[in-house]
TrEMBL record:
It comes from the Bacteria. It is a multi-pass membrane protein. This is Na/Pi cotransporter family protein. It is found in: Cell membrane. GO terms for molecular function: sodium:phosphate symporter activity. The chain crosses the membrane at residues 50-75, 82-103, 123-141, 148-166, 186-204, 262-285, 291-313. PANTHER family: SODIUM-DEPENDENT PHOSPHATE TRANSPORT PROTEIN 2B (PTHR10010:SF46), SOLUTE CARRIER FAMILY 34 SODIUM PHOSPHATE , MEMBER 2-RELATED (PTHR10010).
Amino acid sequence: MDVFFQIVTMAGGLALFLFGMHMLSAGLEKFSGGRLEQILEKLTSNVIKGVLLGAVVTAAIQSSSATTVIVVGLVNAGILKLHSAVGIIMGANIGTTVTGQILRLAELDSSGSASTIIQMIKPNFWAPLIAIIGVVLLMTAKKKKVKIVSEILLGFGVLFQGMFIMTEAVEPLSDSPMFHSLFQTLGNNPLLGVLVGAGVTAIIQSSSASVGILQAVASTGAVSYSAAFPIIMGQNIGTCVTSLLSSIGTSKNAKRAAMVHLYFNIIGTIVFLIAVYTINAFWPFSFWTESIGMGGIANVHTLFNIVVTILFLPFTRVLEKLAVLTIRNGSQDEEDGIEASAEINTLDDRFLVSPSLALNQCKDVVLKMGEYAQTNFTKCITLLGKYDAKKADKIRQREESIDKMEDRLNNYIVKMSDHELTDSENKMMSNILRMIPEFERIGDYTINIVECAEAIEEKEAKISAKAMEELKVLHAAVSEIIEMAIKSFRDNDITTAIHVEPLEETIDMIQDVLKAKHIERLKKGKCTIDGGLAFLEVLSNMERISDHCSNVAVYIIGYQQGGDLINRHEYIRRMHEGDFNDYAYYMDDYKKRYFDKIISKVKA
């Protein structure tokens, strides 16, 4: 019965340990706001820099699994090259050893003259205090940042409490002959030790947690260096399960990134085991049969990952080639299909573990929507003068891509809303949701212009040369306002956003003049009915595009001023009343560049 209670207590301690680790990792992730992960995107091909960044990011978010999953996602999206991913993965293995080094503080000797200071350093003293502070902050704090800090503190406290419970649960086993016999068997059979370490880690999917369990068991004095060594090697292999599972359904390079993680740990384990057991055979280690403590386990774990990383630094290309040989290239059609869906792949579910990073990916896809719509608008004007079916088909293909991106974005953001977001992340998500339909509608109106060109071609109608000259001036103005809308969104540029409205007002004035002039031409019979109606429809679509660009600018201004949605009509009224110093200047500038040019053409 005592054994049963010990197992239950051990399981309860493990549950608290895992929950505390999850809470700590999630809190650190929120506190970083995704900035650490965003560094990975900007990584160069420098492997050493990749190792350092991988180690820092993993140490900061306390999860090598999270780092490798994010790396697999970045490779899948085409943001990170496979070669760059190798360094980050190796660095993640080093960063994950930090947890074990913190846990080892529990075994510090508190006897002697400096006992009070050492006692205060030990987690037994400060872990409960940190947990108390975390609870107080969680119950009293109103600011989101303070609540995130309270989650971090609580995570630390709960993690160590779980560790204490596990240590106490296994303490009675120190006198069990069966327990000592078990670890003696593992010490005599390194392969079995590797399998046990890999199996436990694969089940709980956390090398930090499995190392913590081993440290708790080692506190009984029943674990020797010879038994712990192969188990620690196996733990590094078992942690690869998470990245392998995350690579299911990804591109070939993403699968290769997961395989690099596996090969790094398997080959590293084989090399390390051969080296250590060979040396021990000729020059026996004096400590080999002695009991290993929590600090010893932490040191072996850290030493293994640092040494193996140093050994592999000159051979990163070999790891890459091994992964490529394992995951071979498919047919050309298959590869083209992956390339064609590159924008959709950017919205990888693996990024949802870091909402800030996922939101940045969403922003990139929205920008791609805007760029596709801009390209379509640039090309559609040529179809009005001379229709080309192939050009029209390419414009439609881009429009289909815009629609696919819109659907994927909406579904992705729904998934993201299930995760806990900070205030800034919620504001960013709201801003992105407002932008999606604006850029999608710009694409739709461009297709309307293409359909006008098709109607002119089918009915053998024609837009007069004079009307085409006028349209080109309007087209230039609308092209500029689209560029300004995209720039203001891409850079969160409130200055550019403020300059959008004067140009939108100028475009409205141009449309009114051209519409009146063209109706006059229709009345005088200078233009065919079919051509004239198509011309008016094109004017209307261009004006609507400028309206959506104005909406984008208004959203950016609201977002930069705190994230609140501002009243567009109130904003325009304030502009006209002179609340914005540059409004009159830019209105005059756009009138000279576009409106006056139209007037001169109309009068000619």
